[in-house]
Structure formats: C-alpha cells, structure tokens
Amino acid sequence: MEDSAAVAGRLWDEWLPMSVRGLIADPLPGGQVAARRLVGWLAGVHDIGKATPAFACQVEQLAQVMRGHGLEMRSREAMGADRRLALHGLAGQVLLGEWLQERHGWTVKQTGQFTVAVGGHHGVPPEHGQIQALHRHPDLLRTHGPARALWKRVQDELLDACAAEFGVGEDLADWKTVKLPQPVQVLLSALVIVCDWIASNRDLFPYFPEDVPRTGPERIAAAWAGLDLPGPWRAEEPAADAHELFASRFDPPPGAKARPVQEAAVELAREMDEPGLMVIEAPMGEGKTEAALAAAEILAARSGAGGVFFALPTMATGNAMFPRLLHWLDRLPAPPGTRYSVLLAHSKAALNDDFVGLLGDGGQRIAAVDLDGHGSEQWRPSSRDRVAGAELVAHAWLRGRKKAMLSSFVAGTIDQLLFAGLKSRHLALRHLAIAGKVVVIDEAHAYDTYMSVYLDRVLSWLGAYRVPVVVLSATLPAGRRRELAEAYAGKEVTRAAANAFEAVGKAGDYPLLTAVTPGGAPLMRRPAASARGTQVEVKRLDDDVDVLADRLERELAQGGCVLVVRNTVRRVLEAAAVLRQRFGEANVTVAHSCFVDVDRAAKDASLLNRFGPPGKADRPTGAHIVVASQVAEQSLDVDFDLLVTDLAPIDLLLQRMGRLHRHQRGGTEQTDRPERLRQARCLITGVDWNAPVPRPVAGSVAVYGAYALLRSAAALLEHLDGGPQRPVRLPADISPLVQRAYTDTLDGPPGWTQALEDARARHEEHRADQAERAATFRLDAAARPGRPLFGWVAAGVGDADDTRQGRAQVRDSRESLEVVVVQRRADGSLATLPWLKPDRKGRVLAGLPLPTEQVPTALAARTAASCGLRLPIQFSFPDVMDRALDELEELYVEAWQTNDSHWLAGQLILPLDEHCQTHLAGFTLRYSPSDGLEVTRA
Asked: Using an 8 Å Cβ cutoff, are 403 and 372 in contact?
C-alpha cells in the first residue's frame, strides 16, 4: 500500500503532464494539492480487496495462520467457483464504498465515481451485475459468524490507517459533494493501474526480507531511480514569428519563408480562446506536417500537454514520419540533459533502424509486472489472439502493447488512436496516453465510414479531455469537416454555434483552417495559397495494356519518368509484364503492398533516390516507368513527368496528381523535362469510356465501390471534355472537385442518372452497414459528471491491440494473415532469403541459417522477422484462412517459442523453395524481389 501510494506521488510530481494534473484537479476543492492526495490514496487502497476470505484462502499455509488469529475462512476448495464472484478489485471497490458510507456519511451514489478506480485496476471496471452478485454473497467479503466482526474491524482499520497515512481525512468531507467527470474517473483508474504495475515489480521493490534495510523514502527513491522514467515534455510557447519559428525547427532552404498556410496555423494556434481542434486543409506538398508540428508546440505550451502523438494511415507512412519527428525533437529548445521517451507505434516498429537506434545499450532490464506478450501458454499458429512481433520502445519499462503509448512522443498508425474508441481491456491506459498529448491526425480523408465511426467517438473523448488536436488533409469533403468539428466540440452547443457549424459544412475555400474548442463555436481562417501551382491536362485512355504500352512508347520517345497507378496488385503485375516486354526489365519498376517488409522499405528508398526532389535524387536519364498500386498516393516525395492512373475516388486521384510535376525542374517552364512532357498530363484508364455510362473495371469497383468512381468521373467531365483549355489547376481546383464529388446532390449527365441512383443506393446501404457493425464494440460517449464508469467496456473485445482480431476491429477489413517468409533449402534446412543486402554495418543478411532445433542467432532471427508479409485478400476468407493455418501449423518450430526468441516466437512461417515458390490452401505463391508476391489458383 505504501509503495503504490509513494509511486503515485512520484508519478504526479515528475511524470504526469500538467494538462492531466489540471484536468483531475479541476472538479476537486483544494485543486492540485488535493488531487495529488486523491491519486496517492486510491493507489494506496487499491488492493484492500485482498483482505477478504475469497482472496486470503488461496494459500492454505498463510490462511491457517490467519485462522489462528480469529480470521476464519473456508478453504479454497470449499468456496469453489463462488470465489470468482469476489475478485479482489471488485471486492476492494465494495469494501471502500461501504467504508465511505459508514465512516464518512457518503451515499451509495456518491461512492462509485471514486471507488471504480479500485474496482477497475486490472483493466475492466466492474459491471452492475457483478456488483449485485457480490452483494448476494457477503460471506466472500467477511466470513459468517463470530469472525465477521473481526474481518470488518481489520478492513476498517486498514482503510482508516490509509486515510490518515495519505492525508485525506479532511478531504473526504469535501469530496462527498463532488461530481467527477467520467474522463477524470478514467484517468484515476489508469494511474492506479500504472502505480500497481510499478509497485508490484520485484526488480524495483524487492520483497522483504530480500530488500536491504532502508526507510520507506529510501526504498521509493531507489525504485524511482531504477525505473528512470523520462519526464514529460514541458513546452514553452516560442516568441518568434512564424518565419523565425520554421527556420529554427525545420532547416528550410536558405531564404525560404513559412508559407501562408503555415503562418496562419501558427497564428491560429496562438489566437484560439483555448487549445482545441484545428483542421488544416491545404494542397499536397504545402508543408502541412511542419505546420502541424509548429502548431503542436504552441498548443502544448498553452495546454500543458506533455507530448505529441502523430497518427498516420499506414505503417509505411508511420516509418516515413518517424525520422522527421526525431529531427524536430532534436531542434526543440530544452534544458541540457533533457530526455524524452519516444515510440514508433505499430507492430513492425522493432524492425525500424531509426527506432531501434534509440534503445542505446539496452542495459536496463526491468521485468514486466503484467505481461503483455505471451505467458506460459503454448502458442499455436491458429491462436486468434496472437500479437504481432516484439515491439520495442525507447524506454525499457515501456515495453509491451499496453504501456508503450505512454511514451511522450509517438508516431504510429491511426489504429493506435482508434483503439481508444474500442471497448477493450486496459482501455483506461490508452486514454491516459492520449489525454496528455497533442494529437495530430494525418490524411484525414483516407478513413472510410467504418473507421470514421471510431474516429468521431475518439474525438469526442479528446474534446472531453481538452486535448489539442490537429487534423491534416489535402482533400477533405466539407461535410466530413463539419462532422469532425462537431464530434470534438461535443453536444452542448448554442444556437449561434449551430449556425457556425452549418457554415463550416458549406465552406468551399481552399486552403482553409477550421478551429473549434470543446463546447465552442467554430471559426475559419482563409490563408492565401502559395505561388506554387500546376496545371494538369486530364485525358481518357482505353483500358488495354497494349494501348497503354503504345501510348507510352510515343510519350517516352525522348525519355522521361512515368508513374502508372493501378487499383489492384493483379493489374499492377499484368501491366508491368507487358511494359517490360516493350521497355526492358531494367526500365520498369513495380511497387505495391505485397512485398516483404524489408523489400518494401528498399522499394520506397529506391523510389526516393531516383524520383525524389532535385538535388537529392539520381534521376534516370532515359525512359523509366514505375507501375504501382495505391502505395504511391501517400508519404513519398516523388516527382514524375507523366501520370497514368486507374479511375479512383476524386480525392485519391488528386493525391496521385500530386506526384506529377511536384517540383520545378528547369524553372517554371520545366525545361529539364523532356519537351513532350513539360506540360503535366494525367491519363485516366481502368474504365470503359465507350459505354453509355463509364464502366470501371471490376477490381476498382471491389476496392472503392461504383458510386465513388462514377461521382469522380462526373466531377472530372468538364476537364476530360475541355482538353488543354480546361486543365485541372492545382491547387485551385482541389476543393471544388472534392466538394462536387461528395455533395449529397447527384451530379452527372442526364444519361447517368439511373446508374448513379442505383450506385448511391448500394453505397448508402454499405455505409449504414459499416456504421452499424462499427458501433457494436464502440465506446459510449462520456456520460454526465458523477456517473460511475461501471460497465464502461462491457461486451467489449477483450485484449484488442495488435492481434489479428483487434486490427480488423477498427478497420472494415477481413482478418488477414501475416507470415515471416524464409527459404527452405534442398536439404530441408531453413535460411533467410537469399537476395537480402548487407545491413548498415556491412553484415551479411542473405542465407543466414535458421536452425529448427534451437533459437537462431539474434542477427538471423531479426533478419527473418524483417521479411514479414501480409497475405492478400484471398487468404482472408474463413475457409481459406482455416486451411492456410492448418498447413502453416505443420511448420511449428517449438524451439522458437521461448522468451529467448522474441523475434520469431508467435510468428507464422512461410517457407519458399529454392525457386521462391510454394503452395498454400489451394493457391500457388511465387515471390521475387522485383515483383513481390503473385498468387494464382493451383
């Protein structure tokens, strides 16, 4: 009890961000001083439920000693299954509530909002039914008969002593009238969990008599020094203007100044009545990321936030963002010796060299208290709660998927944020993690209805926590902009605010900044666009690979670099095969999602090295074609002379156009580009343009739906039919095109009306189905102040996080199989893939042995783990997945399922033969480092 309370005090003083302390203190008489006492007291009493027969009976030898002192209890066997009705967290909640009522005159309604932090300290707040069931079995709390009074006296004496020791005796009378907001109850519950985990750690707090003789303060000082948690970020609002601020944080080219959007973001962050939500809509390449980080610094200083969470659509975008985040951190002003805890938050983070480099010598070893990974249970490939590979963090104690997000600075996938809206075990820890940060949400247009259901609910909680949020998008529909602002602001808005929200939903300005505070009215800023701009001629192209090849032969007669974007991997490979016959293997590059991780990273690096900004890339001198899937839409600063793309939703088409003439090559006239390609052009294919109503190919319809594709085609008609006189002007046409394609009013030629109506009906049915399914496990909005968190995550998904089931829960996708790809040699032995290049230290990675009778070397195991691959959708159907799991289980390497094999334990292993082929669940799989995975029916 003393250890937990002492840890709470240290966490409050040295680790908890000012914003969280202020939120907890706000409803309490006595402010932060009283709040600190409350946190210490709850942490100190959280295990009072162990002073019950239901808990004490577990070790018969100790129970017998207690019986000798009059504390009678039945044996564990005699209690049977009933003992599970009095789990010690729930028992502690009930005992503490009774003590508050009897000793301090509280009512039943008043106690729950405080005692739930005790009841939920193992990750799930009790439900009403569980509380009622325990009340029907009072003997589990105190044995019937003469011993009952003694049990009661012991429990009361312990609670009396805690109240005196932790100094809350006088506070309890004041707290009796307090109504704790539910966000505060969540934070208190999370803090009790963290205190419990730290204080229960034998490495930090050795059990008596193992510990050396020392006083209580000496014991906590030694433990805190051993834990060595970095403190929160303490941002100070920069005095510099926007231009000076950007020059000091981001290393712009000599003479460069902040762009108007960036300048407006800095000014708005300073002018808002209080930190709140800011939506930044600006063109691709306009520096939205830098604007967000600059605004985050100001908002953190104003709010007391202790860190930043940067949420991105994919692992690839997270990896690309991480070094930029580190560079920004290096340039933040800080006292000498300042340390920050930093995390790359996705399931493959441990394979990122920038992240692993933060671990230093890794000398600190602190055992986990509540194991987040595998316990003693034997894992099998068919296990549905399998976590993805080991996830390292830059501070040793913050290992594991439940604690990692508590790091101060985090770059990760949007899933990590959406999990805060999913009813799951230890959800309070996720809320504690985001409540003390500035949250940045990138590519907000990339999230469908299903994900938006979770995102909107998370935004409502972020507003309740008064967390500053910055949302970034180049192509956000106006209606979605309004939904984001309303979700954050909450339900309590005035009539004037309602009118302002209506204006937000109609605004067509671009660039545009929108801001709103919790419960407030939104305001908008309309900065000028920068002078940078591109005019893109848009033309139709028949969907035939030979037609494509013929056209590119003409376009590339003088050389040039072309990006061909296809909506499915199959179409990527089909086009690449024909183009290689025409242009040669060396002049065609393939990029899509079905590459092993290390090859995917190498592809991204190669694209940047060849097609990146002038002065930073070694651009091909002759003709070169990149055939890519949607991976080319985001994260990569690449620049092409010509774009050929499948028809896609308008926002994604505009993102793809953002890779076209992205940089000036030879001045505004683009004279360094081939003469034929100095005018930016986009050829749209993947659709039968000769049909009465354009008919997209089946693969595109399967990915995006017919409605979004037809609306996109309709929005582009005047540009498709207008020729060179009506190009798409970037950025001027971005917002008009997006708003036109996403307005509720059907827009298209009269002959399209019936097809559009039919497609819309299917679209609305699909959206309604998405919303209904997403709501199943979605967290409720925060209830009124004073209402206890009982049943807060009832009917939830258990432990979600990085399990197959969890990731599928916050995305409208089927569960997918992830495998580690290795090679099986002719003699049957396993090895790492043969084409891998040496690492940064020059160590050979190709063909490293992977012995099955023992744990492979650390280098071999990590190298193998870096060859992870998510199998395509064919393996996501239940019958195929089950068959694949059965076949993969045949290569279950027991020697790898140990704590010494954290890279490979729990991984599905897919061995390729010496020709890089294999069979799985009725499919033939072929893999090459140039084309990735190709799947055909066997």
From this structure: yes
- Tokens for 895, please give them: 């020697």
Name the nearest CA neighbour of 426 among 115, 90, 193, 119. 193
Inter-axis angle of helices 216-227 and 2-14, nearest 10:
50
SS3 assignment, position 439 = strand
Separation of first and last alpha carbons in the chain: 63
Question: How many residues would you count in the chain?
Answer: 938
Host H or E run for residue 470: strand 469-473
Whether pLDDT at 590 is above 90: yes
In the three-class reduction of DSSP (H, G, I as helix; E, B as strand; rest coil), residue 848 is classed as: coil
Query: How many helices (H) does the chain have, and how many strands (E)?
Result: 34, 24
3-state secondary structure 235-299: CCCCCCCHHHHHHHHHCCCCCCCCCHHHHHHHHHHHHCCCCCEEEEECCCCCCHHHHHHHHHHHH
Q: Tens digits of per-residue pLDDT, 386-422? A: 332 222 233 444 545 566 678 888 888 888 899 999 9
Residue 531 has a pLDDT of: 67
Instruction: Provide the token pair at 757.
Output: 């109506």
Question: What confidence tier does 601 reach under pLDDT thresholds 50, 70, 90?
Answer: confident
Q: Work out whether strand 277-281 and strand 512-516 pair parallel, antiparallel, or are unpaired.
A: antiparallel
Distance CA 206, CA 212 (A): 9
Element (H, E) at 623: strand 623-628
Residue ranges of alpha helices (H) inside 413-558 are 414-418, 427-435, 449-464, 478-489, 495-504, 545-555
| Gap between the Cα atoms of 789 and 179, Å rounded | 12
- Listed in sequence order, the residues at least 6 apart from 35 whose beta carbon sits closer than 8 Å to its beta carbon are 12, 21, 24, 25, 28
Determine contact, residues 637/608, Cβ cutoff 8 Å: yes
Angle between helices 706-722 and 734-742 (to 10 degrees): 140
- Return the bridge partners of 516, or none: 277
Position with higher pLDDT, 462 vs 401: 462
Calculated CA dihedral for residues 647, 649, 653, 654, nearest 10 degrees:
160
DSSP per position, 174-205: HHTT----HHHHHHHHHHHHHHHHHHT-TTTS
Instruction: Tell me the C-alpha distance between 54 and 780, whole Å.
Output: 33
Cα–Cα distance between 740 and 41 in angstroms, integer? 57
CA atoms within 13 A on the CB side of 602: 19
Rounded distance, CA 538 to CA 689, Å? 14
Could you report the per-residue pLDDT of 624-648, keeping only the tens digit for each? 999 999 988 876 789 999 999 999 9
- Which region among 343-357, 376-390, 541-555, 888-902 has the lowest average model confidence (pLDDT)? 376-390
Tens digit of each residue's pLDDT (9 = 90 or more) over 48-107: 999 999 999 999 999 999 999 999 999 999 999 999 999 999 999 999 999 999 999 999
Q: Which residues have a Cβ under 8 Å from the Cβ of 787 and sit 6 or more positions away?
A: 113, 182
Nearest to 410 by CA among 345, 362, 314: 345
Instruction: Count the alpha carbons within 13 Å of 840 in the hemisphere toward its beta carbon.
Output: 6
pTM of the model: 0.87
For the segment 718-736, the average pLDDT, to the nearest whole number, is 89
User: What order do you get walking across the sheet with 560-565 strand by strand?
Assistant: 588-591, 623-628, 560-565, 642-646, 681-685, 534-540, 728-730
Model confidence band, residue 527 (pLDDT cutoffs 50, 70, 90): very high
464 pLDDT more than 90: yes
Residue of 646, 634, 586 whose CA lies nearest to 610: 586
Please say if the pLDDT value at position 378 is more than 80: no
Cβ partners under 8 Å of residue 610, min gap 6? 617, 618, 619, 620, 624
Which candidate, 736, 735, 757, places its Cα nearest to that of 745?
Answer: 757
Q: In Å, what is the CA distance from 891 to each residue of 165, 662, 744, 818, 820?
A: 57, 48, 53, 15, 12
In angstroms, the Cα distances linking 596 to 51, 560, 678, 870 are 53, 29, 36, 8
Strand-pairing partners, residue 471, are 279, 441
